[in-house]
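Dear support,

Our group has been running a series of protein-ligand predictions, and this particular one with adenosine-5'-triphosphate is the one our PI (initials K.S.) wants archived with full inputs and outputs. We had some confusion internally about which version of the output was final, so please treat the block below as the authoritative record. The input we submitted was:
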Amino acid sequence: MAALESLRKGVLGFGPLGINGDEEEAEDSPTVLLSVLAQHGQMGLCFYDTKDSSLHYMIDTADNYELQLLARVIQEVSPHVIITSAKQERCMTSFLQQLGSNPDYKPEVVTYPYVDFGLEVSKQRLLSAHLPFVPASISERDKMSYLSSCISFDSPLMLRAVGALLKCLDRRRVGVELEDSSVGVPILQFHSYTLKGVVCIDRDTYSVLQIFKSELHPSVYKLHSGEKEGLSLYGILNRCRCKFGSKLLRQWFLRPTLDLAVLHRRQEVIRFFTSPRNSDALSNLQSSLRNISNIPTLLRRMSLSHTKVTDWQSLYKTAYNAVCIRDTVRHLPQSIHLFRDISEGLSDDLDHIASLISRVVDFETSLAENRFTIKPNVDPAIDEKKRRMMGLSDFLTNVARRELEHLDPRIPSCCVIYIPLIGFLLSVPRMPSMVEKEDFELEELDFMFLSEDRLHYRSQRTKELDNLLGDLHCDIRDMETAVMTQLQNIILERSASLYKVLDLTAELDCLMAMSSASQEYGYTSPKLVSHRKITVTQGRHPLLELCSPVFVANSFQSSESQGRVKIITGPNSSGKSIYLKQVGLIVFMALIGSDVPAKEAEIGLVDGIFTRMQSRESVSVGLSTFMIDLNQMAQALNSTTGNSLVLIDEFGKGTNTVDGLSLLAASISHWLRKPPMDVPHVLLATNFHSLLQLGLLPSSGLLSLLTLETAVDGEELVFLYQLKEGICQSSYAANIATLAGLPTSLVQRGVEVSELYRTGRLIKRIDKASSDEQANRCRSVVKMFLSLDLEDKDLDLQHFMKDELLPSAGELPNRS
Ligand SMILES: Nc1ncnc2c1ncn2[C@@H]1O[C@H](COP(=O)(O)OP(=O)(O)OP(=O)(O)O)[C@@H](O)[C@H]1O
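Confirmed final output from the archive:
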């Protein structure tokens, strides 16, 4: 043990091992339990994730009466269990009721008595929680101050929520259901969770912009292995080499940020790796990243003493490669924040862990015997026992030879074997005369069992051997297990260094993934500014440009001087929706720190992206399509600030034309009448050309009108997809209908009726013979009406209708 002790202290050199054990991931479906307490406009919450046994806490934050912040957390985390106090404010009651009415998401709601949310009770629970990362040397008295460095003690509501969460974990024995009752639910780390500075984007926007393809809730905490991402922004940018890199990238996607410092930190790394000069560093780092394993899973197994041989291999590879990454990064410019953090943050603990594992664990034998085996020179006592064990075989041959001399002369040979837990036995071949059990009895020997045609006996001599050497094997195992436990403890005490590896390498992985996507697709680094302006020069749709052989780039400018409300008209299929989505995606990409598909871009950070685009299917929500449209529009009207981006496509189509048009006009007017500072960036596509033709909007310097160019080549309509200023004069519906394959006669009749309607002329039915006579009769009726003098006191309307008008009208033609 002395050698192990010396390893504890010293840092020894090490090199790569020729090991190839694949990491085996624990893929039980993870559970997230969230505990929340809301009081007097403040909210404190925390949640436990079984996937990595981590406790995430959010410092007490103000929330509104609708608990929007809580809704946002639930949207992101998707807890399976929500724990709250039985004594709660009305806002929480109605929040939970509302949650219950969502058919897509049904968490289990658990209420505990208010006392379980007591501050002192919670602190006590925290102190007695199973926290393997707390060094054993820390006394009970100092534990509280140690813990206050891991979790904020300034947030009473959150701390009280932690108390209830720990009670629930304990009661349900989450993740340790099958363990002995003495094994507590491990908490391997505390994580601060924040939504500060997060750009507001709802689920519909994520789906309509195709940021995530999966129809499931895009939650980080629900991403199971095997789930495939279709064509989506996440899909094309996610070139991460490790799982936790992908997971972090997903988190970035779910939390686009307004924090310029965070975005600049990401941009500087991407800029470094997109330079062709640095491609070697990129590929070196990526190959090391591949060997970083899922640290939380490994540490979790360690905390439960379930460490497998392959876990030791993975941990060694992880520590070794983390050191390689750090050493490579130390040669890169330290002016880049992430590089400096890696150089300084990946501590010597990693060298220590790697060298310790490589000095202690005998991987070859461990793999062969499928149990933890240690190398020589770690513990002299074990070495001594192993030596005796090795010498045993020669020694046993001698013993067997001597035993044979005393045996029945008919027995040709014998050997002495050792079976762990049973001990030493004399093994002789079964002879043909030995048929019945009685035949097995031999003089001075105790028959034990028959196996594979060999008979096993205990003799006086083997009993002596048992006393002398019998526990050797078990002793070695026990001693090696003790070394393993000690090694585990050393590593668990250094788990903070390993989590740091996880955080920093995940960030590096994401940024390298985004850099290679940027390089491959020809993106540019956007200039991020804090003022209210968006300028995109020759922007492209990041997904469509990959599927379409030719993509026409279009620019976008939105500012006080260039207009903040843009209305785009254009025939169907002219590219309006794509343009809207393209702007949304470019802004979104800038807000996660990524490069963007454009020649140049200057993006003023927006606090939210609101969309009203195609409706999600309404069956599951129980709302009509039009109602969903209205809900989305209401969100955009009520929640936007002068710093939001609003994308509206075809609003008002779900009801009759006049009502839809008026609602649309009223909504745009609402924004245009606001003070310029409060007008969001609005990009609106519509087929209601009368919105502009009838002059339904107030005149405003903030309004600009755009259209997408088309050309008519003979009968054929050609889409040019080029954006220009102006209004679309025709919907070209007939041309598009012909393109879509509608019968020509039908299209012609449509054109005819549309023309008559537009010019206010009579539309004649084609299914009934109409005659000039009928038309004349109509005309005479109108004439008679017009000749009426309504001011005439003697006018007898009854007589006029009955005797003059109706006989002359005959049968009136119907309008078709
Ligand atoms: N800039 C572009 N470059 C190349 N192709 C484009 C471009 N924009 C759109 N397209 C093509 O045109 C198709 C139709 O585009 P989009 O759906 O945006 O039309 P739309 O005007 O919104 O139609 P609707 O009014 O019927 O919704 C796209 O699927 C795409 O194939």
